[in-house]
Amino acid sequence: ASELERRLREAQDEHRRAEQRYADLEAHLQAQARDLQAELRARTEELHERDALLRRRDEELLEVSGQLGDLQGLFDEVNRQLQTECNRIGKLQESVALCAKQAKELEQLQAMLEDSHQMLAQVRDALEAERAERVRAAGLLEHEQQRTQLLLDVLKGFKERLQGLTPQVLLSRLGGAGADAKALLASAGVTLPPM
């Protein structure tokens, strides 16, 4: 009986120790479970925060993407306007080049025109000189014609009046008028023989 009691006590002690180990293990497991739950809650909150942050980032990205789309449309419009301006500037440069060419041609034409004016002035001066020479020659010719006609008239009158008379007798009869007639004959190149 004492052996059974001893074994019973030992079994009871072992049972108590087992219960104590179980209680200690359960307490340890409960503590670990609480720690794990706390960590899980913390991780869950962190995931929620990250998810909220990602959603905000997605919203910001969508907004930025929309703004970029608007900016792309604006850039396209600006590029079209720049292309239009470049085309207009190209046409203006062509016009400027054409104007420069025309200006150079105009300068050449002006130089030719000035040369023509100078030549015309020279021709006009030459014509004026020739006209003046012609007028002078016409005056001289008319004067010579008048002198010739006068001489012919005088000679004709002498012939009619003085048939058969010598010039010396005629001049002696004319007196002063004879001196004038003699001078007229001398101017015409007629020399009377001495009396």
Can you tell me about this structure?
This protein is 92% helix and 0% strand. The protein is mainly alpha-helical and 195 residues long. The termini are far apart. The model has no long low-confidence stretch (mean pLDDT 84).
Mean pLDDT: 84
In N-to-C order, the SSE pattern is HHH
Could you tell me the number of beta strands?
A: 0
Helix proportion range: over 70%
For the termini, the CA-CA separation is: 231 Å
- How would the global form be characterised? rod-shaped
Strand content: under 5%
The total count of helices amounts to: 3
Low-confidence regions: none
Oligomeric category:
single chain
The structural class is mainly alpha
Please give the largest β-sheet.
none
Question: Characteristics of this structure?
Answer:
195 residues, mainly alpha, 0% strand
